[in-house]
Amino acid sequence: MLQNIKEFLDQFRFAEPVISSDAVIFGILMIMLGLIFWTHSFQSKGWVTFYRFVPMLLLCYFLPSLLTASGMVEPKDSNLYNVATRYMLPASLILLTLSIDLREIFKLGPKALIMFLTGTVGVILGGPVAILIVASFDPDLVGGVDANAVWRGLSTVAGSWIGGGANQADMKEIFNPSDELFSVMVAVDVFVAEIWMVFLLLGVGKAKEIDRFMKADASSVERLKEKMENFSLGVKRNPTTADLMVILALAFGTTALCHAVADSVAPWIGTNYPALSKFSLDSNFFWLIVLATTLGVLMSFTKLRNYEGAGASKIGTVCIFILVATIGLGMDIFAVFEHPGLFMVGGIWMLFHVVLLFLVGYLIRAPYFFLAVGSKANIGGAASAPVVAAAFHPALAPVGVLLAVLGYALGTYGAWLCAILMEYSAPVTNSQ
């Protein structure tokens, strides 16, 4: 039946791409993002209700995918994804980690960090667990070899679910799944993650009831809200042109440095220590991302972090959403009709993550706020964690940013570990 639905929809596709210019495609993507953010800012009841049930992040993936689904655009012929991953991605990581305040993160209290790390562990272990479960009754579904090995595609989901779209792009470049497989995995990532997002946002209205069930004391969240309101007022300023130019110089100047070092280190390791290739240490992209994250964290200990008050993380978030749109352009929304089994794998994986969160949250009596933000700081990162945090109170949005930035810092390492575990868990078959 699902295949029949796809065949019906295929009748409305353009036979040949209508738009081939990257300049035109990029302009359309920016218009889509602008409309989404513009309507999301409306306070009218209709739009508030709409975005309560249709997360903004989902639209940022979904609307660009319609260009591909309709046949208007062929993403394989576009260079936008390469530009986004090589320039926007490292720049965004630098700006997001530039604003990190490790001391403030630790001041959130152990429960916030425990829930965040529980979410990370849930993703790292949930991937191989899902593969093992499905392989027990359908090994072909999670098998495959070379670029079509399903674990390679799932590595990109791990990247997205430990930090967000930036880390998803990292894993794609490091483990090189086929374009077709990656397209399916983007759909798995978005649909499964956003279904969980909907439940999280619905839970915000029931936060007090959930806290009573968890036997949690949410007074720390109220104190945190007051502290973050004072923090936001203390650093906020109207950015000057000089501020914006310095922020861009930091982002793209450091990106250039990372490219220069990665282009030297990766081939040197590949030539002198080929055995390390199995750990992706001969990958230029791996070093580019690790260096960008590391240098951003190091700069956060200097006065450069004061540029957060001028909007450093906001510019970084803009770069991330441009990346999200280019990823959405390559998303196959018909994948659910062709590969329903892979969505089952994603569902089992997410269920493991959710059950572990609620189990640990119940044991340590963590407020629902920490559970929700801790989860989305991993799954979606800076693109969605602030949204969930702000759903509790707008002043709490920076908490989502702080934890999400930590997700970015851990994402490359955690997703890489998850991918290695999935590789060892996956059966070797000829399936895709």
Question: What report would you give on this structure?
Answer:
- With 432 residues, the protein is mostly helical.
- It has one domain (81-425).
- The chain has 20 helices and no strands.
- It has helices at 2-10, 22-40, 45-53, 56-69, 80-98, 102-107, 110-135, 150-161, 165-175, 179-204, 207-214, 219-235, 241-272, 284-299, 312-329, 335-338, 340-364, 368-378, 385-392, 397-425.
- α2 runs antiparallel to α4.
- The mean pLDDT is 83.
Features:
74% helix, 20 helices, 432 residues, globular
How would the blueprint of this fold be written?
Blueprint: H1 2-10, H2 22-40, H3 45-53, H4 56-69, H5 80-98, H6 102-107, H7 110-135, H8 150-161, H9 165-175, H10 179-204, H11 207-214, H12 219-235, H13 241-272, H14 284-299, H15 312-329, H16 335-338, H17 340-364, H18 368-378, H19 385-392, H20 397-425
